[in-house]
Automatic annotation (TrEMBL):
GO cellular component, one term: membrane
Organism: Lactobacillus gallinarum
Name this polypeptide is given: ABC transporter substrate-binding protein
Chain ranges of the Solute-binding protein family 3/N-terminal domain: 55-270
Pfam families: SBP_bac_3
Length: 286
């Protein structure tokens, strides 16, 4: 047999081994025309896919009144939930809620468990690296609550004391950069507020918008520091690269703002839980 024929046979055998191995181990040749990973993610969770399946998966909190929680009748309610239902209505699809904690909102998107996050998600430079934020629908800053009989009124008073925060929040990110503050971190809002009631920390830091609501329901505590750090914004978030859903959501936020939807959302879901010190313009954007 000629050397050339032997060489062709050997190369054929090698090619066969590669094909069989790829099939066995689940390897696939990359599709060079498919674009980036972000483009593929967009196809999985984009507008056309959501409409095809007939429902949108929205990640919300389950224990954060008045933004997202389950009431005594077992119904999901709150400012973010109100928005989520309107988004599903305008898409003409049903809604499936995915309950999240602050520290797993990004993972929920990246693992394709949700199409969009509406869980009091504050925009930060770090988060913009891992998710895509749509236009904001609320403004917020970090606040600090403490017992009325031992109020914390300045950041200086937190030096050497334990400050309670929820993991993955802007409050944690802010105070992690402040020297002399000892952070006591929890996975959920329920855990952090229980820790404050049990005296495990001198104060608790979180978004001031719902701290106002919490102290109204718990009058033994006060918002001693109403705002610290820079003003920030809360936005819907979608998986990085999901341009289809991002574009639609931006258009939706613009439309809802123009028609006064967020004013109605505020009056229905937030106003009953806030004190007289808070006005719609402190929360919503116009």
């Amino acid at each position: 047999m000629k050397k050339k024929n032997i060489f062709n046979i050997i190369m054929g055998i090698v090619a066969l081994i590669v094909v069989v191995s790829a099939a066995y181990f689940g390897f696939t040749q990359p599709n060079l025309n498919s674009g980036t990973a972000g483009s593929r993610w967009s196809n999985e969770n984009g507008i056309s896919e959501i409409k095809r399946r007939g429902y949108i998966r929205v990640a919300v909190f389950g224990d954060l009144p008045p933004y997202g929680w389950v009431n005594d009748q077992g119904k999901r309610v709150g400012y973010d939930v109100y928005l989520a239902r309107r988004i599903a209505k305008d898409l003409n699809v049903k809604i499936r809620f995915i309950q999240v904690n602050a520290n797993n909102r990004v993972d929920t998107l990246n693992s394709n468990k949700a199409d969009i996050v509406l869980a009091n998600f504050t925009v930060t430079p770090e988060r913009k690296d891992v998710v895509d934020f749509a236009k904001p629908y609320m403004k917020v800053s970090v606040g600090v609550i403490s017992p009325k009989n031992a109020p914390i009124k300045s950041a200086q008073e937190l030096k050497g004391k334990k400050l309670i925060v929820t993991k993955g929040t802007t409050a944690e990110n802010y105070f992690a950069k402040q020297s002399g503050v000892n952070l006591l971190k929890f996975d959920s809002k329920t855990q952090q507020f229980n820790a404050l009631k049990n005296g495990r920390g001198a104060a608790l830091a979180d978004d001031n918008s719902y701290l106002y609501a919490w102290v109204k329901k718990n009058p033994k505590y006060v918002v001693g520091i109403k705002s610290i750090g820079s003003r920030q914004y809360v936005s819907p978030a979608v998986k990085k690269g999901n341009l289809s859903l991002l574009k639609w959501t931006n258009q939706e936020i613009t439309k809802l703002t123009q028609e006064g939807f967020f004013v109605k959302d505020y009056q229905t879901e937030l106003a009953p839980y806030f004190g007289k010190d808070i006005k719609p313009t402190d929360i919503i954007l116009k």
